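Continuing the series of single-chain predictions for the mutant panel. This is the parent chain; the variants come on the following pages.
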Amino acid sequence: MYTKNQIILGLCLAASPSIFAQQPFSELTPVGFDQVQINDAFWKPKMDKVSTVTLNACINYTEFKTARIRNFENAAKKTGHHEGIYYDDSDVYKALEAIAYSLQNRRDTVLEKKADEWIEKIEAAQMPDGYLDTYFQLRDISKRWTDIEKHEDYNAGHLIEAAVAYYHATGKDRLLQVATRLANHIDSTFRLAGKHWVSGHEEIELALIKLYHLTGSDRYYKLANWYLEQRGHGYGYSPMWTSKESHEYYQDDVPVKEASNIKGHAVRAMYLYTGTADVAAISRDTGYLNAMERVWQDVVYRNMYLTGGIGSSGNNEGFTRDYDLPNVDAYCETCASVGMVFWNQRMNLLTGESKYIDVLERTLYNGALSGLALNGDHFFYGNPLASPGKYERSEWFGTACCPANIARLIASLGNYIYNKSNDGIWVNLFIGSKTTIPIHQSKMTVEQETNYPWDGEVKIKLSPDKKTKMGLHVRIPGWVEGQPVPGDLYRFEHSEASPFYVLVNGAKVDFKVDKGYMVIEREWQKGDILTINFPVEVKKILAKDSVKEDLDRIAVQRGPLVYCFEQTDNKGKVWNMMLPPNTEFSTKFEKDLLGGVTVIHCSLPAIEINADGTTLSTQTKTVTAIPYFAWANREPAAMQVWLPVRIKDVKLNY
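Parent structure:
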């Protein structure tokens, strides 16, 4: 039985997918959000904004401006009709999950009371047999479990996640009881009855593993594994999906263990592979592990944007062909980036390799964070890497998965900072925070102090309640090692590693490197301070030639942040500029700009149409780049991440 304050995900330690079977398995677990206090100068204001603004926006639209809560009220009374879309229940659950994380970060009795009101209405709507889905309850209950596209178990998965989070944050189990009854209903209806079923929109798999870890009941692990085993055998049916391509759309064309490349709907894929990694951590099934590594390489080596965003096409909200990475038309759904954070965390836990946290960090600071406006109540559904000037954030969406999804990610940031094992502590992300971790019959308090990502100095104070010998594993970011992402999809113009220093109590200390982490083995005592200074420099990035959209173009990165050039800072134009390879940069922190950001300045040639209207001239102008996550926060404005190096690629009609 697991403790109340942990959601244990597990680790299988492996060096590469080809030798999983030869490697012993050991356990690495994340330190949960309810064990971490965040005081970070970069993230804490964003978390507070989620608590005070974003969640209020979610509540306003969920309860008052749409019928989502009213659907539960009507289902409880068995009257009225369903309003909205068949997956709208999930938005209520995601909002509740975000509220749970937020309550852990910042106690709010009004917010908690609102959550309890919703939970009471959800409980009242549940049927005696445990079924809960307002779409079918208010339309035609006889049609339940007949169409895999109708998101019944997707909704159930988000209910389970919300229930687990709310229990951890508040100790209240009312929603957990609702979720357990629904999970039992699904298990009895399908697995225990010997029936086949495929989830058309994956999510329940990862949720069931959370329920398994909380309750200790292997019924939920078995059901999650059963869901995975159903795929790729032709069991899925929906009137909407009948072709081979449609089965690829929801990852049902081959069994999970035979998967070798990414395909279909990006969010569905991320949730499926997160759940697969969760199951593999328990089952120690090398078939799942090998498949996850193959698919991960296909995503990161051939199908991921520089921002960590995935899913290039709005037509299928997902993937097309390798290296198809357009900028203006990039879809890069916010929810897909949230899913990338989930999946890469699980892959790190499975293998102990830092490369997965490198991708997680890139996605978190760029592709995901851009989905939330600085004011906290406007959102991006898609996150393009270039805009002619008309793309802007919205207050809400008809399909409203993204607002609550980005809210729950930011509010749960504490889940991703630290890992632990029986004999060591891992520092994955550099975020001002404090946690206490049991180790070797001792309790180790770990405190981080940093101004990351604006500069690279990180101080980690360790205070055990008694002297403790252990290994401290601190991730060396890939961008420090001269590699922006694993593989060769993107590369720095100069790929040399940047030197950095490591001190313990002011003195240089030796360390070894294991799987991308610096490892410092010593007997730690109260007040020991580890200081690291990663050089945060402006670096030019080039894309692989196969990425035709970025051929002869350069992007700019500083630390973990991708930068962009926005019209607002550059005299109304960004599409007429070139970025020659010999460009030099300067930086400045602007405390009053966009909530406080470091900007990049440089002088670039720009093509202008002369007064005669028939000739062109090249002028040099000083330009400004801002972090990509902060664009479109002042006005609808033209923007580019990748600037051309040649005149032939300049566009004067934007």
